[in-house]
Amino acid sequence: YPSEFLMQKITEDNQIPLHLHVSVSLQYVAGLKGNALVEFFHGNIAEVENEELRHLMWSSVLFYKTPSVEVMACVLLSTKAIYFLLDDSFIHTNEHQSDFWNKENSNCENSSFHLSRCFVLKLNDLQSVNVGLFDQYFRITGHSADHIVTCLTRDSYNTHTFIQQLMAVLSLLARTPSPEPVDKDFYSEFGSKNTGKMENYELIHSSRVKFIYPNEEEIGDLAFLVAEKMDGLTNLQSLNILLYVLVFQVNHVEESAQNTSSLQPKTLILTSSDLFLFDEDYISYPLPEFAKEPPKRDKYQLVDGRRIRDLDRVLMGYQTYPQALTFVFDDVQNQDLMQNLTLDHFGE
């Protein structure tokens, strides 16, 4: 350990997404290659001597206790735990979360010394993994509110690869086998006799960790919600969701020295007639078993919506991934056209 192939794969994966800025300490980690990366893991992160590093991924993450703060992290999967090496900025923006981050005052005045916070989720504490729509993100759930993390990969390939690696590592865990399931027919297995509603598709791994995937009804619910926001102008039968993707909206902030752009996480939904931007709660739904009350905000909150027929042109940047798109809509003054969509946005 480790094999040549694994070394090469981890080195290739150790790249920070270009559009996201991270602290100096994480830039240092991203600069490590091959052997140096594995040695760094064993010397600074690993909790047990004989654990093996199996997978590395850079992703934005959200914690259940701080659902509004998205932070960049280096996610390391080993044979014992999942480690989230967090960007320093997260620690400073969450001073009030002292109970969560059990802080210790460190006297690190030396500018060449950088300290990062590492959140550890042991595989033995893992209970379920919820995969988001179209594999754009996934949520890892442990035994308490402190142990719920969502990885916003915004990339189905990264999500799929991580889930595959996680399943492989969980197979190595020695857990007592589950009791033999009683044979059930399709309807009693997936359907609720009270409501007749299909449950989400669940795969129970041999380690007893549940992998929960969305079913077709979730898209139906989303289509209904979109139609509701359109104030019933569109027939629900003819409403098709063509695209669901997690994006960043670019807001240009004018400062005295220079123009900087801030990236606001959004969910983009394209239907056959409209383009929508939503603020989505990626971490509170579905409700964890220990939740006493529903979350303070809805899963989807409409930010903006425009009709496709008002779209004038689409400007495309020529840079590599991630691609920047600018949608230019006709500035139509007729209130009649947009009234139903602007009601939420410009209310009060």
From TrEMBL:
Primary localisation category: cytoplasm
Location of the protein in the cell: Cytoplasm
InterPro entries named among the record's database cross-references: PH_domain-containing_M2, PH_NISCH_C, PH_PLEKHM2
Keyword Cytoplasm: yes
Stored Pfam families: PH_NISCH_C (PF25625), PH_PLEKHM2 (PF23142)
GO biological process: Golgi organization; lysosome localization; regulation of protein localization
GO terms, molecular function: kinesin binding
Gene Ontology cellular component annotations, sorted alphabetically: endosome membrane
Location of the Nischarin C-terminal PH domain: 241-347
Taxonomy, superkingdom: Eukaryota
Signal peptide coordinates: none
Alphabetized UniProt keyword annotations: Cytoplasm
PLEKHM2 PH domain span: 111-178
Protein name per the record: Nischarin
